[in-house]
Amino acid sequence: MSVAPRREDYDVVVIGAGPAGLAAAATAAEAGLATLLLDENAGPGGQVFRAIASTPVTDRKQLGEDYWVGADLVQSLRAGSTEVIHRATVWSLDRNLDIAVSIGGASAFIKARRVILATGALERPFPIPGWTLPGVMTAGAAQTMLKSSALVPDGRTVIAGQGPLLWLLAAQILRLGGRIDRILDTTERGNYFAALPHAFAFLTSPYFAKGLSMMREVKAKVQVVSGVTELAAAGDGQLASVSYVAGGKRETIAADLLLLHQGVVPNVNLAMSAGVEHRWDDLQLCWSPVLDASGTSSVAGIAIAGDGAGIGGANAAVVRGRIAARAAVEALAPASAAKLASMAALRSDLAKAERGRIFLDTLFRPAAQFRIPSGDTIVCRCEEVTAKDVLDSVAIGATGPNQLKAYRRTGMGPCQGRLCGLTITELMAQARGKTPQEIGYYRLRAPVKPITLAELAAVPKSEADVKAVVRG
Amino acid sequence: MTVNVDAIVIGGGIHGCSTTLHLCLAGLKPVLIEKDYAGRHASGVNAGGVRQLARHIPEIPLSIRSMGIWERISDLLDDDCSFESYGQVLVAENEEELAVCRARVAELNALGFTHEELIDATELRRLVPAVAETCPGGVVSRRDGAANPAQTTTAFRRKAEQLGATVREGLAAGNIRYSDGLWHVDVGPETFAAPVLVNAAGAWAGKIAADLGEPVPVETVAPMLMITSRVPHFIDPVVILRGRKLSFKQFKNGTVLIGGGHLARPYQDRNETVLNWKSLATSAQTVFELFPVMRSATIVRAWAGIEAKMKDDIPVFGPSSRHKGLYHQFGFSLHGFQLGPGAGAVMAELIVNGGSQTRISDLGIDRFYPTTLSPLRTS
What we know:
The complex is a heterodimer of chains A (472) and B (379).
Chain A: E1 9-15, H1 19-30, E2 35-38, H2 60-63, H3 65-79, E3 83-85, E4 88-93, E5 98-103, E6 106-117, E7 121-123, E8 136-138, H4 139-149, E9 157-162, H5 164-175, E10 182-185, H6 189-195, H7 199-203, H8 206-219, E11 223-225, E12 228-234, E13 241-246, E14 249-254, E15 257-262, E16 264-266, H9 269-273, E17 278-281, E18 286-289, E19 302-304, H10 313-332, H11 343-353, H12 357-363, H13 368-371, E20 378-380, E21 385-386, H14 387-395, H15 401-408, H16 421-432, H17 436-439, E22 451-452, H18 453-457, H19 463-466
Helix pairs in contact in A: 1-3, 1-10, 4-5, 5-8, 6-12, 10-11, 14-16
Chain B: E1 2-4, E2 7-10, H1 14-25, E3 30-34, H2 42-45, E4 49-50, H3 60-70, H4 73-77, E5 88-92, H5 95-110, E6 117-120, H6 121-127, E7 137-141, E8 145-146, H7 149-162, E9 166-169, E10 173-179, E11 182-187, E12 190-194, E13 196-199, H8 205-211, E14 218-228, E15 238-241, E16 247-250, E17 256-259, E18 263-267, E19 272-274, H9 277-290, E20 298-304, E21 307-310, E22 316-319, E23 326-330, H10 340-353
Parallel strand pairs in B: 1-12, 2-3, 2-13, 3-9, 5-15, 13-23
Antiparallel strand pairs in B: 4-8, 5-7, 6-7, 10-11, 11-12, 14-17, 14-18, 14-20, 14-21, 15-16, 16-17, 18-19, 22-23
Helix pairs in contact in B: 1-7, 1-10, 3-10
């Protein structure tokens, strides 16, 4: 049952009910602020705690103890006064803090005094030859099916890529009785050395022991090929085989399902469309918002918490959510801030949660050949634009992602660059001998998620909106 | 260091790019200065309408001149600009509106213009089968059409550069001054000097004119557009309404562009606009009512381009009334895209020949100021 927001104005609107959003909303409400939590999914949890309130998986070990931390966050949110609306898609946010949200096929407009964006992360594009074939999907998509429906692969399955989520997913599939034929690890050998100086911090982080035992668990059951330097999917209208090169040797294996993953990057679309300044992060190889220590962005009143603020993982997301909410409380109701954890305590929690992050970022920095494709490999799936098409356009004068639209319509399809944006920036940067920061990113516009014409037509309109029009 | 050129054009919209290209074709060496990049604002993000239909009478000769260039745009630019010509249709939704259409066509005919043609319900239905049954007719301009605005502006810029124009993007023109018989303009570390200066700076042109002693009644506006997901092909011509504010165009790939002049709030200094969704919703409602086929389409993106709108809705086009060698080309008031190719050609003629066969005398800045210079011959 969908419900429209009860009010037109809120003190704090939190967007996204993952770890950061749950923590931020609970904190703001605890201080007595009128708080609205809008979330796109059917229930709380975001990606990492997806379906935490509804999963059919009952054996806690199968999804891992970390997953169930989400249940405590949901509990503390529900104990408070936050108004929570699920299946609510925020499709517009602007610098005046006007928010448009679609709920059950009807759009509502609300205004906030503070907005906390907790829109999390997206999987990094993995543009290899054949990645658009049916039968190739992202590890994240597979994990969504696993958490919400306990669905696991039963055909010939290959997992390729790198990063903590890859190993977590592999472990979860195996625990639920799913099939994995081979894991192709694309971690660059050189990364192990580069990461070494940061290893000490990682050894003392909570991720270390868990990560190690998970990798052992998976390697005991599945053949893992490390040092993969080339990767391609092939098939006639459907995935049939995966070929790869490791240690200079090429091999091709038959496959029904290829799961790809090479880390996650901030989901920047809503923040960028609101005008929030972002900068290229050279370590994480993605755009991250420019934020102060409390998560406040370049747009007055908009803060960003969680992985949308730069990838930090679930534990850091929770603390960032609390910090952003506390900053909102300090601004809107300073007297109530006393009952919350102090900023100093929260910052120390954050430092702890972020320990080991540089190690992970360095170790799992994806290799150039898996980020920057060449030749006929598709870059923009919506408009079927290849790497060669992009380079040809650069050769005749396209200087950046927005100019490229005039040549190839890249980024103009329904995904608004989610699946091609980073690739386009890096590809053009490489071709033009510039930095990604210099090349820039698509200008993103609302609706950040498509809405139907019928829904927009049904929006209540005032006389003033209908007037003041000139012929175009 | 000062670089001497034949002309300095400020503004990399379709007008500045077209004028630059036509100056090159006339054998001059111009420099084009654009503070962002060519096509960054209105010229690159407008509806792409190539329309003679429903124009203000003073700009019709320029529009007709332009149409001739559009029809051979590939020859000029080595780029088809995605120009297609299925006509533009103005729909009358009732008999009263049709009467206004009839009077308009009669007025144009009396002036010798024949590009607008009155049509009845049958012809309207033939041209736009999806239109509501109740519409009694309208006006068609059969040679009209649409093009891709970013592709077009980019193509003008590229061709101008190929023909020898110097292009400076990403740096604003500064410290505009006249000395020793030449206009001087600073661009970053460089200074350009030329006997001719063209002010084609769009929403930023009013300030340039004012700084040079010719303030005009102009405001900055940002008309909004939105585009839908792909729907099955159902319409060829561009459709605009007589009574309600809507323009409508389906592209080859099935996407549908919905415009009509609802305005966003411009933040000119930041190159930003904030959309007004409630007024976009009125456009959506009109489409919903008129084209049931569109009801389940999704809106995938909306945007607005920053541009200049004159109080009288007519551009400022022609020589300055105060300064020798200064030319204005701005204030196209939401309908400048189609005029771009022709305006560039005519501007080059004014600069090179001192006059043009195309009648533009009602568009001059001298409608605000009696000229202090000896008038040019603009027939």
